[in-house]
Structures are given as C-alpha cells and as structure tokens.
Amino acid sequence: KEGPGGLTVAEITNSLAESTIALQGAHVMTWQPHGQAPVLWLSRFGKFAPGKSIRGGVPVCWPWFGPHAEDAKLPGHGFARTVMWEVQETRAQPDGATFISFGLIETDATRAQWPHPSSAKLRVTVGAELKVELATRNTGSAPFQIGEALHTYFHISDVADMKIKGLEGCTYLDKVGGTTSKTQQGPIVIESEVDRVYLNTESDCLIEDLGLKRQIRIATRSSRSTVVWNPWIEKAEKMGDFGPEGYRGMVCVESANAVDNVVTVLPGAEHILQAMISVEALA
Ligand code: BG6
Hints:
Belongs to the glucose-6-phosphate 1-epimerase family. The chain is mainly β. The chain has helices at about 110-115, 230-240; strands spanning about 10-15, 15-20, 25-35, 60, 85-90, 100-105, 120-125, 130-140, 145, 150, 155, 160-165, 170-175, 180-185, 195-200, 205-210, 215-220, 225-230, 250-255, 265, 270-280.
C-alpha cells in the first residue's frame, strides 16, 4: 500500500510481530514483536521520498560501504538503498512468522555504477525474531569485491541508559576526528559522536537498555565487521532528518563487511550476509 511520502510499502502482521518494508531499498522500516516497544528506530523527520534513503530501519548498503573507493561522485553506501526492489516470494512459516524475499531491479543506472554481472536479494523473516539475509550472487565469469551493511538503527530508551556488549577486545577504526586504529576496552558507552568500524568481529552484539529493561541481541553469519554509529548533537542537526533530540533514542549497530573485511565473490558463487535480531528481558 501507499506509505509515507508516497513510497510503496508491504505491511506484515502475523501472530508474532508486525513490520513495514518499503519496496524502495527493500528497506525494513519497522519491526515490533507483539508486546514489545519498537525494536527499530525510524526518524519521524525523515524525507520519505523516491530516490532518498530513509533515516532509520534497516538501510541496505550495497555493493560498497561508505564512500566509493575510486569515484567520490558515486553515492555513499552504494545504490541499493535508493533503488526499487521487487517482491519475489512470500510464505507463511510453520511457527507463524512471515517470509518475504525481494530482488534488486537492475536498470541502466545501476549497471553504470556496478558493471559486474550479479544479483542481489534480500530475504526477510518477520517473527519473534527478525532475520535479514542479503544474498549476492556472481553471475559473471570474473570475481568481484563487495562492501555491504545491514545498517540497522535500533530504538533505545535513552543513549545514557544503554551499553553495547560483545565487541570487547576488538580492533576498530575510529572515524571521528581522522581515522585511527584502536582496541575496544569493555562495553561501549556513548557520550559523544561515535563512528567506528570494528573489524574481524565474531560474537553476538548485545544492546543492553536499562530504561526499557531489555537487551537486543544481534547474531550474525558471514559478517566480519560491525559498525557502531551515533551522530550526536551537531552532526544530527546538520543532517536535518533526526529531529530534536533524535540521536538520544537511537544507535546503529550494523552487521557489515567493510574496509579490510570486504568480500570477494567468485564466479557462480553466492555470498549471504545474515543478521538475526531478537529481544530478551533484563533480569
Ligand atoms: C555510518 C557511517 O555507517 O552511516 C557514518 O559509518 C555515516 O560515517 C552514517 O555518517 C550515515 O550515513 P548516511 O549516508 O545514511 O547519512
């Protein structure tokens, strides 16, 4: 049906959860298991317009993450989040969850930016857990490299009442004030702008939220990087689509393959990045 800004959205409601997914970007905008506060953060001040990335939910960054390595004119985080995808399959699962898959629609414009024969699919399972899989198939005869992220915005009660666990001891590139390499000591606490790419990450990430008395668990497969981002006051104001104090209620924990962890996809091979998101009560 028609969603905000005239974007076409799929609305899914089942016995376990509800979710709204825009066809532009195959962008999961909301996911709310019944009886829970929203798990994803979606800006109320976002642009919601054709060709503009939605601020919140799960933007799909593909086939590169951040600025393009060779051509600064190409869009940051790739083009997948701003082009149209089509629904390819919907299916009810035995446990009551809903499976829906999307394929990126290739056009002359996408081929001009990404000349490698390939297909991109996003498979989403909406249930008590949200499972998102981004599958890249190399349909050509030469290998190519991709960067990617499920750039997930999480809804939190207040950034001051939140900690991120699971990245202790990992090396990260700190992108605030020039790029430097650092090692994470203890859980992540956010008290100013944070923009970090954690490399070679293996463990589940936990967003512990004392205000909502819950923790969000992010389990992954074939994701070697984790990006943690909160723009804080000035950057959020400059971006113009966070709204007043918007940065306080969100944190991005992105399941990614970026920087040193970009992925080579061989001819005929399919690479699948997966994120499984669930919510647990805090004792
Ligand atoms: C994060 C990047 O993944 O996305 C940040 O690490 C960036 O540097 C942020 O600012 C938001 O990007 P965009 O393109 O959605 O404004």
